[in-house]
Design goal:
Length: 82
C-alpha cells in the first residue's frame, strides 16, 4: 500500500520556489505547452491558501523535468535543479 505525500505543504515552501522557477523559465514557456498567466495564478492561489493545486503543480513539474531530460536534452540524470 502506498502513502500520501504532503504536496500542498511542499508547494507552499521550497518546492513552490523551485516549481515556479522551472515552470516559468523562458525555456519552459517557449515550448508553448503552458499559459504563463495560468501557471502564475495557480502558484499565487496555492501559496495564498485560496486553492489546493499541489497535485496539478507536481504533474506539471514532472512533465517539465521529463521534457528537459528527454526532449530538450538540457538536463542530465543527476543534475541539480537548484
Amino acid at each position: 500500500m502506498g502513502f500520501g505525500i504532503p504536496l500542498n505543504a511542499w508547494f507552499r515552501g521550497e518546492l513552490g520556489a523551485l516549481g515556479r522557477r522551472l515552470l516559468l523559465d523562458p525555456q519552459s514557456l517557449k515550448r508553448g505547452y503552458f499559459n504563463e498567466a495560468v501557471i502564475r495564478d495557480m502558484f499565487d492561489a496555492h501559496a495564498a491558501g485560496r486553492a489546493e493545486h499541489g497535485f496539478r503543480l507536481w504533474s506539471l513539474l514532472c512533465f517539465d523535468i521529463w521534457h528537459r531530460l528527454y526532449i530538450d536534452k538540457t538536463l542530465k540524470p543527476g543534475d541539480s535543479l537548484r
